[in-house]
Design brief:
The protein is mainly α. It folds into 2 domains: 70 residues, no CATH class; 62 residues. It contains 9 helices and 2 strands, in the order αααααββαααα.
């Protein structure tokens, strides 16, 4: 994504009411590429023209970077809550097992790895679940590419909303007489 596309996408998200921290997090990979290639942070702030003071701009980038780094260690598979019993190893029978809720990966597999790889070129944070939904509805990479351009879908969150509408319409059409 070049500077003008990034500017348009970020402004669009801000106009939709997204929080600045979320917008910077969602676009961090593109911001980082520009900073590492040819733009200083003050120059990038000026070129993006988002109306943000330089100190706040630096803070938003630092926060997005921190969150990105924290998420790199987390699995990209969707999470579910699963109840587990924790056994006591002290051999005391007086205490019942404690049940806790832990989030673990579902192990959900991608039906089409190449589709996921292609979609990650458009939306770096797209989930396995969203990719499977797109494929289950009979759509592919080219369809998503068209939606991104024509419907101005700039984030995976916006793509999820669009796919959910398509799913709802498919279910509604299934039950029409």
């Amino acid at each position: 994504m070049d500077l003008e596309e990034l500017k348009k996408s970020m402004k669009s998200d801000l106009e939709e009411g997204c929080q600045k921290s979320v917008v910077f997090y969602n676009h961090y990979i593109h911001l980082e590429r520009l900073i590492n290639s040819k733009y200083s942070i003050p120059l990038l702030n000026k070129k993006l023209d988002l109306g943000i003071k330089i100190s706040y701009f630096r803070n938003l980038i630092a926060t997005a970077k921190s969150k990105q780094n924290n998420n790199k260690s987390v699995s990209t598979l969707p999470l579910i809550e699963e109840t587990k019993e924790i056994s006591h190893h002290d051999n005391s029978d007086s205490k019942p097992p404690i049940k806790t809720k832990n989030k673990e990966t579902t192990g959900e597999t991608i039906k089409n790895e190449s589709l996921l790889d292609e979609l990650k070129t458009l939306f770096y944070d797209i989930s396995n679940h969203l990719t499977n939904d797109i494929e289950n509805l009979g759509y592919g990479f080219e369809d998503v590419k068209i939606w991104k351009g024509e419907l101005n879908i700039s984030t995976s969150r916006a793509l999820r909303k669009h796919v959910s509408k398509l799913k709802d319409n498919a279910v509604a059409n299934q039950y029409k007489i």
